[in-house]
Amino acid sequence: MQFIALTSIGIENLLVDELTALGAEVSKQTVGSVRFEADSLLAQKICLSSRFATRIMMLIEEKEGVKDKDSLYQFARLQPWQEWFGPKQSFAVDFSGTNNDLKNTQFSGLVVKDAIVDYFADLFEQRPDVDKYNANVRVVARLNRQGVALYIDYSGPRLSERGYRQDQGKAPIKEHLAAALVKRSGWLENVQQPLFDPCCGSGTILIEAASMARNEAPGLFREGFAFERLPSFRIQKYKELKAELTAQITDPKLWLIGHDIDGGVIAKAQENAERADLGNVIKFKQSDATKLTSVAKLPGVVISNLPYGERLGSMAELVNLHRSLGVGFKKHFNHWKLALLGTDESLFKLLKLVKLKRYKFKNGPLDVVLNLYQLDDKQVELSKEDKPALNFEGSTAFANRLKKNKQNLKNWLKQNEVSCYRVYDADIPEYNVAVDVYDDSAVIFEYAAPKEIDDNTAQKRLQDVISLTAEQLAIAPENIAVKVRKKQKGEEQYTKVSKQNRTQVVEEFGAKFKVNLFDYLDTGLFLDHRLARRYIQQNSQGKRFLNLFAYTGSASVHAAVGGAKAITTVDMSKTYLKWAQENFALNDLSNTRYRFEQADCLKWLEYAQGQYDLIFLDPPTFSNSKRMKDAFDVQRDHIKLLTWVKKILSPNGTLIFSNNKRGFSMDEVGLMGLGLKAENISDKTLSPDFKRNKQIHNSWLITHG
Fold first, then answer.
1. Where are the alpha helices (DSSP H) in 474-631?
2. What is the pTM of this model?
3. Which of 53, 286, 294, 453 could, after both became Cys, cross-link 332 (CB 3.0–4.6 A)?
4. 458: buried, middle or exposed (CB in 10 Å: 19+, 13-18, 0-12)?
């Protein structure tokens, strides 16, 4: 009989070797699958024994030229279905692939289903039941350019799920990929040597390694295979096969060590190992991979699925981890082999190690790479420092500037009780970033690099910036967020860029604010408007205050703290208005005259009524408002905007008008035509941490003339 074994991209060669070793005759290898021939007992043995296959399917028939509904129906209708199940059993059809005539897989699956039902109705005058979720037999149909192939699911889905992993951390590695890493690492050539995973997560790699070393068929403890429901299945033969495989399990002395910084994940790893009956074989311990120490006197193999993206959180953590691992490996793991899986080659380069070999795989939808290294005296000599090496000597200039700026701001910060501030803003052209401090955390904004700077150089400089920011400001890497500043389109500015849901509370002139440094492009508090907000607090007593383009309502909070008798907060983002309400709650501010309105501010202004004594207007530089024939441009359209605002500004009222457009020029003639006068207070609203960048914003006090 002919079968096809499915696997992940990159594992096909290992699967071929495995199938051959088990006694199958391999006939074809394609991307993600291997075709082979075997009798039913050998196919069952493969289902029980394969570490690299994710599914085994038995070929019924394949035919070229099947391209439309009629030819598909006829092809399926003519198969001898009674050989695989009877009319009293249930079945389901999985269909994949489309063409010009068969555009919908669900429809194509129904065509095959109808053909099978009609077959049994003609032959037995009975119709088998269809059960999508718990069928006795699952028929698989695959359409490609040549035609259609029909299979019976022989193993059941997900052979890679061994059954021991009920609890897992974020972004776990698939079991069959973990087995592939163990095989590629070379550790199986001598299982007596230590095996260490410094970022072990839920322990999958170590559990797979132990099982492979013990020659333990991974399917032995699985509950039920699809082939057990086929007419050809013989229970006695199957019991003998399982007994044979059980007898082949060995008990070598193993030295397996797993560390992870997350104690909760380590507990899950221990539970998983116990479910795999390996609880006493693997030694798990909570430990920080950035502070590696020796784990064994004899050299061995390090295998690890290094954290990336969601598994760890921030880019700063990743840079710190890889740089620290490079130092730790050189210091404590000379003569060890390393097999490290990751997604980003630029992070691998931070290890400062010369790789021996490279393999490409897929971990679910992710493209991943396994790099192999052999540590020796020459590799270790590359760096004797305990401190991770920087990419550029010039990076020390950035470090010195960061240190100098912080020192220069020290007295001002203390006198004004400011804990959130900008400490660096592209002071050195090569290091085109801004660094903001929020108590014990920081945000690094990377501005787009000049065209003459290639991406690789920019990336390396950013890595240096991250490391030096953590070092010079004494901030833990996990508390550093890294973001790229670029012109936002449409709703992008309201879209989450990460999913950490990490918030903290900061204080400013007696007011508290919730900030989120990781999940959005902006943090929830524009630091450059700090003095404008203080002005609002000092001048809002008993006044009616309006906050337009309010963002998270920080100016409204200051107005409330300052004693405003009525406050209206307007923004088009539901997310930010909710955030504004949370800021009010954080400060125990509650009043029926505090209103929050979700609206396009330009549309709201055009039809606004009532009078306001103090207005804060901080519009975007550009906006695609429906109220404008063209996109709103603050330079071109500010007089039209102020025309609307004038109608609701009380006779003795004050408008604080601000924007972030570089080179903005107030149309004073147009302003006089409106009967308004303006005082430029940009210098007065720039606190010392923003004095380096005079263009950060423009601010004006506008009143009736």
1. 530-538, 554-561, 574-586, 601-606
2. 0.83
3. 294
4. middle
